[in-house]
Each structure stands twice: as structure tokens, then as C-alpha cells.
Amino acid sequence: MEGPAPWERLSEEELEDQYSPSRWVIRRGAEEALRTYSHIGDEATKKARATRKSLLHVPYGDGEGEKLDIYFPEGVSEASPFCLFFHGGYWQSGSKDTSAFMVNPLTEQGVTVVVVAYDIAPKGTLDQMVDQVTRSIVFVQKQYPCNEGIYLCGHSAGAHLAAMMLLANWTKHGVTPNLKGFFLLSGIYDLKPIVYTSQNAPLLMTLEDAQRNSPQLLLEAALTRPLDPACHVLVSVGQHDSPEFHRQSKEFYQILRQGGWNASFEEIHDMDHFEIIWNLTQKDYVLTQGQPRGLSSLAPPLAQGVILDQVPRRAPCMELASPSALSLPLPVCVCVSHE
Ligand SMILES: N[C@@H](CC(=O)c1ccccc1NC=O)C(=O)O
Questions:
Q1: Contact between residue 262 and residue 234 where contact means Cβ atoms under 8 Å apart
Q2: Where are the chain's structural domains?
Q3: 6-335, what's its fold?
Q4: Cα of 90 from ligand 1 centre, angstroms
Q5: Phi/psi zone of residue 125: left (φ > 0), alpha (ψ -120 to 50 degrees), beta?
Q6: Which tens digit of pLDDT belongs to each residue from 128-153?
Q7: How far is the CA of 205 from the centre of ligand 1 (A)?
């Protein structure tokens, strides 16, 4: 019989503290950190929308909140790697309209960036958000079947949603996305401690809900192995994230390795929970730059295609002019051969 989990030994106040990321920032006060985070997200999104070719508020489902923004790299008319971003905010705050953090540096390097909205609480439940994220990826794969890899990037609660995709059952959606990498920043992978914090007030998660939506617990119990052994998972945490956030990331990384995943772990030097994401607006940041540890190191296609500027072609593609019933000018390509 195993003993209590480390978080079960914490008092209510300690647990609240550990799961309040803004209390752990070192260069500013908690409120100022949250304000700066919103401000930088806001500015980055305005800049991305003003300077990049984009398709905004594209529906990936029938729900009012089921929309995504697509930002294209300059001059790339057909296939490219796709980075899908899922914002954080404890599943109860944040918006795609203020989360285009990495759009400018990544599109500059030939990556198409998709910023996905999902119904935050209290409108959405965890199960619904996971389903929405799944369908957003299916949508992108169907619209862009010749993508050169889909890379999921999530921050905090968004890293949790991205991590749930390691367990997604794609067969019922009729398409298996070309997932090449996961980029999980300061995430939460075991939701059970959250049930006992004030963060759960709008979420109304029961322990069963938490269990069903915890990638850590699901992977521990899973008998499945990664479909694509080349798909890389980077689990990353800020040096100034709380000890519980560190523990969650390290344990999740270990579970991934035990399950046969091609995973790596990185503590980002001198970054707090918010800096880890707002620095994605910078081209020379460790996570957006090239070698050895940035997005490019996630998988060889990005490393070769994006950073070394030789976008590899998986298969010959043809562009179709008018792709979908959505009557959006989406560039869709059709694979005419497979390797
Ligand atoms: N109330 C939280 C807010 C928070 O955790 C947060 C805010 C913006 C983006 C991500 C966050 N954390 C996890 O999703 C805090 O105390 O920091």
C-alpha cells in the first residue's frame, strides 16, 4: 500500500499557496505579474494581427466558443509545420484574443501558428474543454492534411489540455493528426490537488472528474504505448515555479519515459510561471530560438525545416482554391502520394 501523495501532506493554506503561481514570482508583486501577463499577451496579439496574414475566429465546431485563429508565415502557401497553442488561466480565465504570444517569432521561422479558444469555466467543464481541444486538432488536420507536423504547445492549464492529447482516441474522429511534438510549459498533470483549492470554485470538479482528466494518472494506468516513437514531448517548468509545479512536471516526465515516450525535461533558468510564456514573444528566447533546446529541438522536421530554413516536403502537395463549406479562403492541400 502506497503512502499519501506529497500534496496530501500539505495543509490547506500550503496547498493554496503551491497552486497559486502568482505568489511565486520574484521580480514583481502577484497582481502586477498577472497584469503584465495580460498586457504582454494583448500587445503580442495586436501585433500578430496587424503584421501577419491570418484567419481569425475560424469555427472548428458548432459551439459559440469553438473558434481558432490561424497565423501564417510569410510566403508559405502550402505545407508548413503547425504549432497549436492552448492558453492557461486555470481553465477559468484567458482567451485566444490575448494569447498570440509566440506568433511573430514562429511565423518568421516558417511555422503556422494556431491559437485555440475553448469554453472556460463556469461555461465549460474539464471534459468539454478536453473534447474541444481534441476537435480543434482534428479540424486543423482535416483542413491542412499536408501539414509538416502538428506541434501542441500549452501553458499551465493549457499544458494540461495539450497533455491530455497524449491519450486521445482519434479513431472516432476519422483522422489521426500528424502529431510530431508536445511543448508543455509549467503544466498541471494531476488535477486531484486542485479539487482542494479555491481554483476549483468555478470548475466544480469532483475527485472523479479530476481523475478522469489527469494525464498523469491516466498514463500511469495505460497499457498503450506511443503510436509514433518519434513524437517528442518536452516537459518544461520555470525555475521560479512553485515546488508543487516542479514536482508535477518531473513526475509527469518520469511517467512518460516509463511509458516509452520520447520525452525530455527542462527547467527554464530564472523564469517564473508567467515569464516562461511571455518570453515566447522574443525571438532570442531559449524556447523560441533554434538549437539546442528551443521549439526546433522538439523534432527533426522543425529543426531542419524551421531553423535551418530548409522546409522538408513530406509529400507532393497540390493547392485547391476553394476548400470548404465554411467558405473561408483556407489554403488546403491534397497529398497526392505518400512516402
Ligand atoms: N489565480 C492564478 C492565475 C493563474 O494561475 C494563471 C493566470 C494566467 C495564466 C495561467 C495561470 N495559471 C495556470 O493556468 C494565480 O494566482 O496565479
A1: no
A2: 6-335
A3: Rossmann fold (3.40.50)
A4: 6
A5: beta
A6: 999 999 999 999 999 999 999 999 99
A7: 17
